[in-house]
Amino acid sequence: MRVLITGGAGFIGSHLSDAYLQRGDEVFVLDDLSTGSFENIRHLKDNPRFHYTIDSVHNQPVTAELVDQVDVIFHLAAAVGVKLIVESPVRTIETNVHGTEVVLSLANKKKKKVLVASTSEVYGLSTQIPFREDGNLVMGATNKGRWSYACSKAIDEFLALAYWREKKLPTIVVRLFNTVGPRQTGQYGMVIPTFVKQALSERPITVFGDGKQSRCFCYVGDVVGALVKLMDDDKAVGEVFNVGSNQEISIGELAKKVKESTNSNSEIVFVPYDEAYEEGFEDMPRRIPDTSKVNKQVGFQPQMNLDGILKSVIDFHSGQQAREYKASAAD
C-alpha cells in the first residue's frame, strides 16, 4: 500500500511512518516542519520506500501530486500544543481548518480514503465523564483563545463527516487523548516531556494550576497500532473514534512520579494558569475517554502502562542529553 502522512515529520506521524515501513508499505510524508522535526524521520531517509516533501498542505499543487500517488491518507498536519494555540490563535485556526479543506477536497477527486486526526480537546468543558463519541461538545467562550483549537478541530470533524455523507469520500475521524512517547517535544506545552526534561536537568518541575486536573496518557505505539487497524477497516468509514488510555492520573501526582522515576532533586513548583498562559485561561478538570467503540471495532486495548511510558520518554531524553553533551564536548 502507498500511504501519505501529512505532518509525517511530527511525533505521531514519524512513528506511523515506522509502522507502515515495517509492514512493507510505501510511505510519503508531507511536512512544513513548523512543529515537526526532520530529526524524527532522519533514520528513514535512506529507505527506498520512504519519500518526504518539505512543504505545506496549503500548497495545493504539491499536495495534489502526492494525493494522486497514494492509496490512503492520514491527515495529521495541525497546529498542536496549548502554548502554541494560546500564542498563535490565527495560525491555529487557519492551519487546522484550511489544511483539512485542502486535503479533503483533493482526496475527493480520486475518492482516496482519509483518516483525520482530531483531539480530546473537542469535548471542551463537558462534564460527561468518560467522554463518549456521541456525547455533547461544550465549548468555552470565543474570547478565550484557548478554545480556538477545539473549535477548529471540531470543524475539521464536521467537514470530514460531511464529505462522507454528501460526496461518499471515505473518511474516518479519530480523537486522540494525550499520546506520549519518544520523539515528543515539550516545546509546545506537552506535559510529560516537559516534566522529564526539567527533572533530568534538575530544574524546577512546573505544574500549571493546582495540579488536581487529571489526564490519561497513551503510548504512541499503541495509538499508531489503532490508526493502522482503523485505516484497514472499511466498516470504520464515516465514524468517530476515541483513542487513548483509561489510566487516570492528576498532573500533580504525575510530577511526583516523574521526579521519583528520574531520581531528580528538582523542586515541584505550582504556576497559576494566568502566569503560564493568559489571563482567564480555562482548563478541563478531567479528560477520560470511553474507548469501548474502538475496542469493539478493531480490538484496541493499550498495552503499555504509565510506568512503561515514562521509562520510554526518560530513556529517550537521557540519550538526547548525552548526545548533546558529547557534541558540545567535541566542539
Strand and helix map with partners:
Elements: E1 2-6, H1 11-23, E2 26-31, E3 50-54, H2 60-69, E4 72-75, H3 82-87, H4 89-110, E5 113-119, H5 147-167, E6 171-176, E7 179-180, H6 191-200, E8 205-208, E9 214-216, E10 218-219, H7 220-232, E11 240-243, E12 248-250, H8 251-261, E13 268-271, H9 273-276, E14 286-287, H10 292-298, H11 306-330
Parallel strand pairs: 1-2, 1-4, 2-3, 4-5, 5-6, 6-11, 7-10, 8-13, 9-14
Antiparallel strand pairs: 9-12
The level 1 CATH classification of the domain at 2-179 and 218-245 and 285-303 is Alpha Beta
Our measurement of the CA-to-CA distance between the termini, rounded to an integer number of angstroms, reads: 44 Å
Mean pLDDT over all positions: 91
- CATH-derived topology of the domain at 2-179 and 218-245 and 285-303: Rossmann fold
Low-confidence stretches: none
Question: What is the gist of this entry?
Answer:
The chain has helices at 11-23, 60-69, 82-87, 89-110, 147-167, 191-200, 220-232, 251-261, 273-276, 292-298, 306-330, and strands spanning 2-6, 26-31, 50-54, 72-75, 113-119, 171-176, 179-180, 205-208, 214-216, 218-219, 240-243, 248-250, 268-271, 286-287. It is of the alpha/beta class.
